[in-house]
Amino acid sequence: MIQEAQLTIDLDCLAHNYNCLRSKLKEDTALIAVVKANAYGTSSVRIAQELAKLGTKHFAVAYTAEAVVLREATIKEDIMVFYPQIGQLDRIIEHQLEPVLYTVEIIKAFIVLLKQKNLKDYPVHIKCNTGLNRIGLSQEDLVFFLTKIDASSLNIKSIYSHLGASENLKPCPFTQHQINAFEVVKKTVKELCPTLPKFHLLNSSGVFNYPEHQLDAVRVGIALYGFANQTEWDLELQPIAKLSAPICQIHTLKKGENVGYNQGWKATKDSRIGIIPIGHADGIGRQYGNGVGKVQILGQTAPIIGNVCMDMLMIDLESIRCEVGTEVILFDKNTTAADFAATGNTISYELLTGLNSRIQRVYQ
């Protein structure tokens, strides 16, 4: 019997997903495991340790602080930092991290810092913008970098871009536009770069949808955790996380009584309701209240009623025979995080990465 809200992480499912993705790649295509946002709400350290055991040589996170956590946990493999900020470049060097350089300004700042420290051949990655228009060098900036900036202190390990709609069914004009733009990037680099770096373009969905463009490496995030953004691809993967919590109290209400803040739910008949110790502070947002979200109890479905509170939510037990301490499942392998998220008009990424650290993590 569980005592509190917990996220149970199945490491066998993680291994299954890693092997599934690896099977879609050529032997010499590198797999970069993305463990940003606490490994999509699980545990970046534990997931990285397990993936390293499986053979992962390359990791990636969003920000410097995330990478430092891994280094301090003795993760020795390469760690890319996708979005380093200029003020964090010293920490990048201190912890032997590999920054992604995505503006001319940050390139110049990093080169200045390397010269001050008398460092050469420092490993970096270059991000190019091919249409997502989030971060990355434009084609003009790329040419300027390769022709006008003394980059002799840099070891450009890879040049890459990011697809914005890789899960869309083919043919997808936008994705094809990005692929074509990246071909221009590759051509430019081959003409102007004295030492040829690696190239990569694909994310999780891209591995399934565009395997012919896997190039030298792929960056996989959400697929490691069990999702690939299309039903048929999801079937090849196994969600690694189960979110559950115990019923901590049961109320018997009379017809006409209300539940929760602002009297969000009114009993239309004599009712039994269960109180679950998890709320919007834990990442289960208010959008799941008022009958939108559903939970599983002893193989039966119960709706979330009233307004989700900061630390609690309430469910209508109807005729479900249960007691205090009975496990309530919000999502698992059967009703997945993607399924639960969809009821709240969002996606598995947002739900998983929003899970608060006070939810106990359990590994099996």
How is this structure best described in words?
The structure is a single chain. This protein is α/β, with parallel strands linked by helices. It is built from twelve helices and 19 strands. It has an eight-stranded parallel beta sheet with strand order 8-7-6-5-4-3-2-9. Strands 11-14-17-16-15 form a five-stranded antiparallel beta sheet, with no helix packed on it. Strand 15 (294-297) and strand 16 (300-305) form a beta hairpin. Helix 1 (11-23) crosses helix 3 and helix 7 packs parallel to helix 8 (173-192). The radius of gyration is 24 Å and the shape is elongated.
Give me the secondary-structure topology.
Blueprint: E1 6-9, H1 11-23, E2 30-34, H2 36-41, H3 44-54, E3 58-61, H4 64-72, E4 78-81, H5 89-94, E5 98-101, H6 104-116, E6 122-127, H7 139-148, E7 154-160, H8 173-192, E8 198-200, H9 204-209, E9 217-220, H10 231-234, E10 241-246, E11 249-253, E12 258-259, E13 265-266, E14 271-276, E15 294-297, E16 300-305, E17 313-316, E18 327-331, H11 337-343, H12 348-353, E19 360-363
Parallel strand pairs: 1-19, 2-3, 2-9, 3-4, 4-5, 5-6, 6-7, 7-8
Antiparallel strand pairs: 1-10, 10-18, 11-14, 12-13, 14-17, 15-16, 16-17
Helix pairs in contact: 1-3, 7-8
